[in-house]
Amino acid sequence: MKKMGFMIGLKPDQITEYKRLHADVWPEILQSLTNANISNYSIFLREPENLLFSYWEYVGQNFEADMQIMASLDITKKWWELCMPCQQQLASCKKTEWWAEMEQVFYHG
Hints:
Layout: E1 2-10, H1 15-23, H2 27-35, E2 38-46, E3 51-58, H3 63-72, H4 74-83, E4 87-88, E5 100-102
Antiparallel strand pairs: 1-3, 1-4, 1-5, 2-3
């Protein structure tokens, strides 16, 4: 199992919409996350900086392949069409990132 954390900005005028979307996530999206071996997925919002922090645990064997499969699904593409306009990429993101991956520097279990 791999613990993973990511950050992205949230546009101030999209906070209400983003919260609304995530208050009623489509069951197909939840199933696609499960199928991609993602568990314990949470998203946190820090205001007034409008930063989103996501955390999940990856329990599969091939992260890149699972992410490619999930990204290729029509339901994922539709969900991202709604969510991505709400988000604002961090300046420090790599060209291949939308959400900026974070390094885990501490864990207490």
